[in-house]
Specification:
With about 325 residues, this protein is an alpha/beta fold. The chain has helices at about 10-30, 35-55, 95-105, 130-140, 160-170, 200, 250-260, 295-330; strands at about 1-5, 55-65, 70-75, 110-120, 120-130, 175-185, 205-210, 220, 235, 240, 245, 260-265, 285-295. The protein has 2 domains: about 1-60 and about 290-330, no CATH class; about 70-285, 3-Layer(aba) Sandwich (Rossmann fold), CATH 3.40.50.410. It contains 8 helices and 13 strands.
Length: about 325
């Protein structure tokens, strides 16, 4: 049996003990009957999810592993304009960004990857890791900021965090090359001047700035929380559909500040990966390792089925309670 927790094992253990302890307390305090059964189901669900967080595996299989002394940083604009519908005709720009990030990751096998996103806030969503599945999961979950919370964004919003992250990576005892890829449309919606990426240039071995959008622009749908079920409306400005237009002047300035090339992206072309100096990656090595067959997905499926049972039970109880109240109201004089 192998274990590969999604967070440091001690952090997962602390969270697991706290949540399981709370559920057990509620289970003991609950009166006998349906409520106690409900807490028992919740306890099993929590245990399954916590076990899944440890990413258990069994058995092993030989898998080739390539390690390179290369760090790749993806910087992605997640402001509202990144879902303007002018990618490949009518698709959101974010679709193109996700496809390009995955393709560029494949172009750098064995590298460590990090994902930074920016809108009104700047977040490092993925610290440096060689786990490409973690990168893909982060990309699949990537959404633009919720529209009603947007307060304008700057195309240079990630400059400070990127510089700090690059500086920290440069302090690694093993010399490593560093590549930065920036993805955005260059649209500055903040009233302040864009921050400069010049501080990051000293740490960058290569990379690229990728621009998305068209001069004609694309409409954007409002972004709600992940719990919303209705189809969002298009964003309007002064009673007319708002459009986002690419600003290649800003994107070219960012490319100059980082010391990399600029590429305008469209669905009919391929994102060009940076050609990193071979001397900076000559510590690369290839070997074989044993990789376990992971079981976390089985645990999550079991937890989901139990949650569906609990949801059905709760819905039925709610319906019965509503019917009982309706009967009482009819019986009242």
């Amino acid at each position: 049996m192998t274990w590969n927790p999604i967070f440091p094992w001690w952090l997962v253990l602390i969270i697991a003990l706290a949540v399981i302890g709370f559920v057990i307390w509620q289970l003991i305090a609950a009166p006998k009957g349906a409520r106690r059964r409900g807490w028992a189901i919740r306890l099993v669900v929590v245990v399954l999810v916590m076990l899944a967080c440890f990413r258990p595996g069994i058995g092993s299989q030989r898998a080739a592993v390539v390690e390179r002394a290369l760090d790749v940083f993806f910087v992605v604009d997640t402001s509202a304009s990144i879902i303007a519908e002018d990618w490949d005709g009518t698709k959101p720009r974010l679709d193109g960004v996700k496809a390009d990030v995955k393709a560029l990751a494949e172009a750098h096998p064995g590298a460590r990857f990090s994902l930074i996103t920016f809108d009104s806030n700047v977040v490092q969503r993925l610290p440096l890791t060689t786990d490409t599945s973690a990168l893909e999961s982060s990309l699949d979950a990537l959404r633009p900021e919720v529209t009603k919370y947007s307060s304008g964004s700057s195309v240079g919003g990630a400059a400070e965090l990127l510089a700090k992250t690059l500086k920290k990576a440069s302090e690694d005892s093993t010399p490593r090359a560093r590549v930065v890829y920036y993805f955005g449309d260059g649209e500055q919606t903040s009233t302040k001047e864009p921050e400069s990426f010049k501080e990051s240039a000293q740490y960058v071995s290569g990379g690229g700035v990728f621009g998305y959008g068209t001069p004609e622009g694309g409409q954007m749908r409002e972004t709600a929380s992940s719990l919303a079920t209705s189809t969002p409306d298009y964003i309007e400005y002064q009673g007319q559909p708002a459009k986002s237009v690419i600003d290649e002047n800003n994107l070219n300035q960012i490319a100059q500040q980082l010391g990399v090339s600029y590429q305008h992206r469209d669905a009919g072309t391929t994102a060009q990966a940076a050609q990193v100096n071979a001397e900076e990656t000559d510590t690369s090595r290839s070997n074989d390792v044993e990789r376990a067959f992971e079981l976390y997905w089985i645990l999550l499926i079991a937890a989901t089925l139990l949650l569906l049972i609990e949801l059905w039970r709760t819905s039925r109880a709610t319906a019965e309670l509503a019917a009982a109240r309706e009967g009482v109201e009819r019986d009242e004089p």
